[in-house]
Amino acid sequence: MDPVIIVGAGPVGLTLALGLARQEVPSVVLDEGPGKDEPRPARTVVLREDTAALLERLTGAALGEQGVRWAGWRSLRRKQVMSEVTFDEAGPAAPLHVAQHVLTTALRTAIADEPLVKVVVDSRLDAIEQERSGVIAHTRGDKGTWWRGSHLVGCDGPRSTVRKLQDIRFPGRTAVERHAVAALRAELPGQGRALLHRMPPWRQSGPSAGEVTARPLPDGVWRLDWLLPPGKDLVTPEALLARIRETLTGWTGASAPAYELLDTGVHTVHHRLARRWRVGRVFLAGDAAHLLGALGTQGLDEGLRDADNLAWKLGPAWHHGSHEALLDSYQSERRAVVAARLRAADQVLPVLRGGGGLRQIVPGASRGHDALLTDGHLGRGPVGAPGAYADSPLAPRHLEAEIAVDTPPGTPVTDVRVTAEDGSFVQLRDRLGRGALLVVLIAPGTGVWDRKHWVSAGVMPRLAAAVTALPCRAELLVAESYPGAPAHSVLLVRPDGHLVTALSGVRPADLYAAAEATMGGAVKEEAQAGSGAR
Known about the structure:
Blueprint: E1 4-7, H1 11-21, E2 27-30, E3 44-47, H2 49-59, H3 63-66, E4 68-69, E5 72-77, E6 80-86, E7 96-99, H4 100-112, E8 117-120, E9 124-131, E10 134-140, E11 145-149, E12 152-154, H5 161-165, E13 172-186, E14 193-198, E15 211-216, E16 221-227, H6 237-252, E17 259-273, E18 278-279, E19 282-284, E20 290-291, H7 299-320, H8 324-354, H9 358-361, H10 369-378, H11 381-384, E21 417-419, E22 425-427, E23 437-442, H12 451-454, H13 460-468, E24 474-479, E25 489-493, E26 499-504, H14 508-518, H15 522-533
Helix pairs in contact: 1-4, 1-7, 7-8
């Protein structure tokens, strides 16, 4: 069968290619560039714990050693400390801050050893033709080439050629915010703690006072961002150097603190959302589908979630055909989540930037402006938290044995230690992304006994038989405990790590119904297709 065509070789496209390879689906990545990424220290990404784990799982690289997991977060307003967050084992997980070229290099290195992924450089797309059985794409150049694929995914950025060729509208707001950016090496107070300083006392009051954010990177490097006043005034090198000297002096108290300037830039934030993310066999992902980034939200983090969501759904469609409801759910789930974050940001921005009353914009909200900004930067709350798929068309309905655990249905599961089918101890996240549903039995005491002593005891034989009878591939795992889950409960987890449901005990009928719903009712689709063929 023809490979999946991926247009764009940025982090989202490369992640999708590796995600498909993990499910034994071949892909061709059309790279418009030369296949190398220019190091830009000022171009960095902030990843939540689960997206960082996804990338480390796919690449095998220890990204935490090439970036920085913040020790904490500090928020100031003028001279007053508004909030402080410390990241440790007992508290919230620390975000990972890493240079984007480091991330892309790790992905390219992993792909170089992956026979199921072919990267074609200097390949600019200029035509797409859809057929009933596949997609044909044409790339221009000295040797124009036609490529045939089963599906095509546009991961080709804000000016996506795929989106334009499919005539998909991309409405939204332009230049929501602008930031001047600098990467520099300097001794700053904080010891690995990120800092947000609103209305710093060394600047005059008013719109130009703005805010400055400092995020640590390895080897004593920091990324500094200054919120620029509205308008299109050019940020000259002299003006940026003046901001750097002023900020470092204000923070350190030194008259002329030493620093090494590594990179600079201007980052403009747009808010846009594509009307459609699927047209037949063509899909959009990442910046081709959405742009967001105000209030600390990270568009790349959402793009990686697009890739993870789409990869496990393309897998069954490539191997077995059909699965239209499963493929449709990609747009339903991901577009709704991103739209909610854009709405939240657009509601909060007038409060934070215009000085309006908080309760007039967000009814019932009691948190201050700085708390909202902190939530956005740290990936929490309505502005920054990863979205849930509770209203997904794949969510099962009317399960008699369903119970509540600390993870609501449709949200990412907690990473716990589990026993795999071969008896080895692994982390739950290590089993994700293989195209199989995960069935997790909560059985206290199993962690201290060899698997051979309990695999044929209690409810295990009945559960193993129920898992074997499911309408799709599934893997049976056993955990000593899970937050909020009673003993002998059973969790069903999607390949992208979102909880489908938690059941009280072994209930084969409910487990089967939940698995079938998660696959988009694919069993019924296949049965109807077979009946029609006869």
